[in-house]
């Protein structure tokens, strides 16, 4: 599973991209985030306040209950500020 | 049509080309977004932006802009529509975004143009990092942008 | 600023000049009105316009446009505003009118631009004479234009 | 008093401009129009349906009850169709 981090989430996690193989219990965005928070203080800081985190699964916006599986591209980023 | 690019664009040349291609239709509405020279959203706050960097999510950006364009074409009778959005480092006065819409009905051209920029500001994966004398700071999303975008969810024609 | 002229204008060059002069403000909205190639307001009606002549009332035109511009500047926080309107003989695809507005708030730029074109269509003394295979016919005013203009009377911000 | 006619009012009246000296009873737009309709069939035709006639006195829109006096510029035209 490929994970992408943008803007300040990238700074907090300390990288823009990583490839992970979460355990079988990780079935949706919510459980993926819970699992990632255990990976270190950077991840824990990035996901401390989920109200300012947006998620895309395979380049489409997704909610916390959206399923994730091996091979997915999951991106985490703050609310967008383009335009 | 959508274009996501690092390079600058010539807003006037794009407008003229768009008018020439859709010249007999009636009306063309256009919006150009430019880099402000002050931090955040308050011009009186005092601090000056030296430059900003627009980060984006390659792939998802194009996908979202294409979806936004398709939505606009479905809602209004548009002859044509063009969105150009830049990424990378930009300085005050630089062009960030261009939205062009052509329609036989000027109200459709205006509404589609506003819809496109409103959705683009709330759904397209771009993030602004402002360079100031203190270093860099990520621009926070504005609730006013969410409110402007939300009106289109309630009522396609306002 | 207002300009009433027989000569063509370069919409793109005007847009670029306007953006350069107001480049650090945030957003520029723009509308370009072009000569349609069909008679009246129905593109499917079949008859083709070969050209049109825009008659105007010199003196009153400038006076009304200046009043319309002043009204827009009073209603919205505009950095700048430009209206160019042509008169004389025009062919399909030719530019008739250009409205440009600049504001720190894109919604103000859009609303002022729409207001200006709505008022211009209902208050500026111009009359279109369409040349067709049958000769010439004066275009009738549209009630839809009156309705679009009327919304600004009720509520300055809609 | 200078009168101006535009668009189809000009065609019907047969001229774009004329200078007139109406009698003292002509004090407002309404009485000016009534007086003009007597000047000939062109004028009568132009003013047959006042619902499609707009009036400006000294280059500002004016209603039928707007006063007119010597020296004024009074213009008659159909609803505008610019833009």
Any descriptors?
heterotetramer; A: 83 residues; alpha+beta; Ubiquitin-like (UB roll); 5-stranded mixed sheet; 3 helices; 5 strands; 27% helix; globular; B: 158 residues; Aldehyde Oxidoreductase, domain 3; 4-stranded mixed sheet; 4-stranded antiparallel sheet; 30% strand
Q: How would you describe the overall organization of this protein?
A:
- Chain A is α+β, with helices and mostly antiparallel strands and 83 residues long.
- Chain A has a single domain (2-77), classed as Ubiquitin-like (UB roll) (Roll).
- Chain A has helices at residues 7-13, 29-37, 41-46, and strands at 2-5, 17-19, 54-57, 60-61, 73-77.
- Chain B is an alpha+beta fold and 158 residues long.
- Chain B has a single domain, classed as Aldehyde Oxidoreductase, domain 3 (Alpha-Beta Complex), CATH 3.90.1170.40.
- Chain B has helices at 11-21, 60-75, 106-123, 143-154; strands spanning 2-5, 27-34, 51-56, 80-86, 88-90, 95-103, 126-132, 135-138.
- The two termini of chain B are 24 Å apart.
- Classes of the chains: A alpha+beta (83), B alpha+beta (158).
- Chains in contact: A-B, B-C, C-D.
Strand content of chain A: 15-25%
Main structural class of chain A: alpha+beta
Largest sheet of chain B: 4 strands, mixed
Using only C-alpha atoms, the radius of gyration of chain A works out to 12 Å
Give the oligomer, counting copies of the same chain as homo and different chains as hetero.
heterotetramer
Query: In the CATH scheme, what's the topology name of chain A?
Result: Ubiquitin-like (UB roll)
Please estimate the helix content of chain B.
25-40%
Q: Which class of secondary structure composition applies to the elements of chain B? A: alpha+beta
């Amino acid at each position: 599973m490929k994970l992408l981090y943008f803007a300040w989430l990238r700074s907090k996690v300390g990288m823009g991209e990583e490839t992970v193989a979460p355990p079988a219990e990780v079935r949706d965005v919510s459980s993926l985030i819970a699992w990632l928070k255990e990976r270190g203080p950077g991840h824990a800081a990035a996901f401390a306040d989920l109200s300012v985190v947006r998620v895309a699964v395979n380049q489409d916006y997704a909610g916390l209950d959206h399923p994730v599986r091996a091979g997915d591209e999951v991106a985490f980023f703050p609310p967008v500020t383009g335009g | 049509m959508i274009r996501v690019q690092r390079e600058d664009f010539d807003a006037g040349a794009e407008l003229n080309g768009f008018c020439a291609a859709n010249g007999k239709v009636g009306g063309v509405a256009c919006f150009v977004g430019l880099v402000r020279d002050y931090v955040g959203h308050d011009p009186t706050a005092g601090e000056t932006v030296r430059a900003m960097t627009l980060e984006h999510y390659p792939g998802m950006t194009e996908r979202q802009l294409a979806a936004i364009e398709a939505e606009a074409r479905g809602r209004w009778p548009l002859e044509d529509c063009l969105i150009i959005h830049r990424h990378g480092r930009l300085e005050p006065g630089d062009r960030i975004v261009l939205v062009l819409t052509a329609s036989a009905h000027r109200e459709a051209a205006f509404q589609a143009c506003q819809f496109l920029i409103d959705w683009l500001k709330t759904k397209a994966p771009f993030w602004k990092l402002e360079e100031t004398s203190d270093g860099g700071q990520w621009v926070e999303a504005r609730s006013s942008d969410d409110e402007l975008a939300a009106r289109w969810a309630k009522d396609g024609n306002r």
